[in-house]
Amino acid sequence: MEQYEEYLARLVRRRRADPGDDLISALVATQAKDDRLTDSELLSTCFVLITAGDETTTHLVGNGMLALLRHPAQLARLRADPALARPAVEELARYDTPTQAIVRVVAEDLTIGGRTLREGELAYLVLAATNRDPERFHDPDRLDLTRPGNRTLSFGNGPHFCLGGPLAKLQAEVAVGTLARRLPHLRLTDEAALDWRPNPLQRRLTALPVTY
Asked: Could you read off the pLDDT of 104-118 as tens digits, one per residue?
């Protein structure tokens, strides 16, 4: 982590001296203009964009392909109709979202569902549970690439909507659609060998062993 922070700090210094047409240069320019970001906040923003942009998208593709390989009829529908790639990503993100939960700090005392939350306490919001809510989704445990009205919270909502959400969806759409199209004989090599990383907030595989 220290090496990562040092690397980002050096990169920020280079962009201050020699700005380019990139996101870090834009953040540096914003900071110079109105001091909206402290140095610490600028580094934290860079850290989140790089880490979240890589990790979550990678595991959206991995979890999504695993779900499709476990549901060959749905995978066959995608192969027969490549236009399904976009709604497929929405459903795959709902069915097995990489971000299982997010953490929020309670801003003021409030009561939800008969429970009192105090200012300053941490609240864990389980996105995976909202995506399987039977009051919101019909037959929520079923994978359905053509599910109507598929609005999930996998990428957040409102002011907390994921900054890179549209790009992540596009990347997953291209990756999943291409794998389905180019590898018609793709299948899991060993279901028992699947190894999930132990993380209560993220659901992600260490690897997805396949053959084609």
From this structure: 999 999 999 899 999
